[in-house]
Every structure is written in structure tokens, then in C-alpha cells.
Amino acid sequence: MAAALAAGETPSPELVAAAGGAGGLRPPVAVACLASIVAGIALVAWVGDRVSPFFLDLDKPPEVLTYEAQQIVQDLGPVPAPADSAYGFVRERQRPGPRRLVFWYRQSPRPLSEGRRIQGGALSFIQPARDIPGMAGVRLDAHGLLVEYVRVPAPDESNATTAPDWAAVARETNATRISPVFADKRYAWDFDATGAPLRAEAASFQGRPVWFQGDRPERCAQ
To answer: Which of 14, 133, 152, 173 has the most crowded CB, counting CB atoms within 10 A?
Structure first.
């Protein structure tokens, strides 16, 4: 067949068949390729479980949720102008029920990368730690409803002219959770929303809100 090709002739089918020599992969190479394919399929399944449902569940795009989170931060009291901000999504296990999609947003008067270099870990709603006065964050559900608000107060923060107006939320009860940031007063309520019992807890420092979280009672008890 080599002579035919050198002479510029097209080899006949019989000549090609007689030449034999299939171009197969060596066993180690074939095994490596198969392993890569299996790993790729697993990666697609893992990413699909975490990414594709975001767009199915969301009532609002991330840009709108970011804007609404920023508005909540502004509405709940003055904070330093952010030097950095970030947002993302996470699915949280609920009992009973499936994992709930939650949008998170946080901002800081200093770059968030500073804390990551010191503390390590992936950027999230709680990482790096909230240890800089003026840091603020919001969590919203897929419909844009407030799940949690948190703000780091300054040690020398002055008293607010009026106390936070929590009374309109619902029936007050005993607080059972500890605020993730420093506070001097805690609040808690039980109430019904869209027919489902909910519980909300909050905290303030010097009369200004520093934390709020609303959720189902069975989750709050964990």
C-alpha cells in the first residue's frame, strides 16, 4: 500500500483490507480517556444540581436581587460606603421540604479579599468573618423576601434618635437565638405568613438594627 501511495495511486479496498493494522488506542490510554469521560459526566451532574435550578426557581434575576438587597441595607440605617461587595446563591436544607434556594449579598468598607487572605476559605455570606464595622449583608429567598439581615456596628456608635419599629412584625415572644454580631437588645416574634407559621428574631445595638432573621420554627430550633 505504501508503494501505491508513493506512486500517487489510490489503494484498492482489497489492498487496504490486506494491509490490516487498525489504529486503536493502547489500553492505558483508553482507560485514561474513559476515566476522563466518567469524571466529566459526574462534574456535569454535580454542577447541574447546583446551578441549573437557580434559573428555574428565581422570580427575579440576580441584578434585581442585588439592587433590592442594597436598598434594604440603606433603609435600615446609614453604613459606610462600600469598598467591595459580593453576592451568590446557596441551597439550604429545610425540614420538612426540599433544599431552599437563597440569594446572599454582602458589602464591606474594606476589600473582602483582605479577610480571605488571612482566614482562607471560599467567599460566602459568612466568609470572611464579619469583623469590620460597617460590614452589612442580606439574604433573600428566590422570591426576593427577606430571610436575614446583619450589620457590624462600630464600638463607639451613637444612640439612634428612635428605637427600631419591630412592633408591626407580629406577636412578641422570648428570644432564643444569639445574634452573630454584637448587640445590646434582642427581639423575637411568632406569626403566620401565607398560612404557614414563621418565627422571626432580631437584635439591635444603640437602638439601630444589627440583625434580623425570619424562618420556620423547626429550622430556628436547630
So the answer is: 152
pLDDT digits (tens, 9 = 90+) for 129-177: 999 999 999 999 888 888 899 999 988 887 777 776 665 445 667 888 8
Helix (H/G/I), strand (E/B), else coil: 139: strand
pLDDT tens, position by position, 21-45: 555 556 666 556 666 665 655 555 5
Domain count, the chain: 2
Residues 51 and 97 in one domain: no
3-state secondary structure of 85: strand
Conformational region of residue 197, where left means phi above 0, alpha means psi within -120 to 50, and beta covers everything else: beta
CA distance 112 to 129: 10
Residue range(s) defining the domain that contains residue 119: 60-220
Alpha carbon distance 92, 213 (integer Å): 14
Amino acid 31: pLDDT: 57
Closest-CA residue to 151 (of 174, 128, 179): 179
Query: Does residue 21 lie in a domain region?
Result: no
- In DSSP terms, which residues pair with 215 in a beta bridge? 199
3-state DSSP percent of the chain in helix, strand and coil, to 5? 30, 25, 45
Residues 143 and 53 in one domain: no
